[in-house]
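Why do we care about 3D structure at all? Because function follows from shape, and shape follows, mostly, from sequence. That is the central idea of this module. The next example makes it concrete: a single protein chain, its amino acid sequence, and then its structure expressed as tokens.
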Amino acid sequence: EYLHVCVCRAMFGVWSIKWNHDGTEVIAGSNSHHLIVHDMVRDTNVVNLEAHGSDINAVCFAEEDFRPNVFLTGSDDHTIRIWDRRMLDGSRGSPVGVLLGHVDGITHLSSKGDGFHILSNSKDQSAKLWDIRHCHAGNDDISHDELGTASQWDYRWSEYPHGNTRYRRKDDDSVVTYTGHTVRRTLIRCYFSPAATTGQRFVYTGSGDGTVVIYDTLTGQKVKELKHCSEPVPVRDVSWHPTLPLLTSVGFDEVARVWVPAGGMSPSSRKWIEGRDF
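And the structure:
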């Protein structure tokens, strides 16, 4: 069965998609700069809004139970925008807030699940922690190219043009910035560690250099780096088991790898060892 979400543009693509809390709608971000909300019951687009100035690479809900109407979109225009589903209708609607801080395209968004804190990954070679209560107003006049930094490079083929330099916007809304991984060649994902086994003390991400990187959520310090493969190929996605001490990683080496912490739960105090590949 197909979802008919196309907005009738040549080379149309959907880069990210999420179900809403009750399964009646999906939200999607596209390369046409459009935010799409598709009604699953009627099989029709109920929102088709030009929401960003460039590709929308990431969408996520702030929290499924208590804030089911609030969701976020991340784009190559460097911004993360906050939306309230109740304020969107057809091609009409505006974000209720904007998070500024990244100086290049957003590749992924994930929620802590508390309705307030969001994690992002970006082509500016950093991940960031946000509190959506501290944002710019949705109608602010925003210059996404304020710093003129990394916009002109193609992350799919090129090296990051600024080496180890990390730029920071003067109006950065983020709470913590995590640096030490690379974001190249693909839309690399990032997440909070599980609440049940770690208390979400860590954030973790794939990396363009063939590693998985784990950071301390509050300090931003790198606490562990796992070498997924010997070649510097991207690790696109990583998943930490919600209740067991297991972590899986997948990369461009055509291997899914399972990691087990030797002797304990904490990635900072124990050695992680390879379990098995499949």
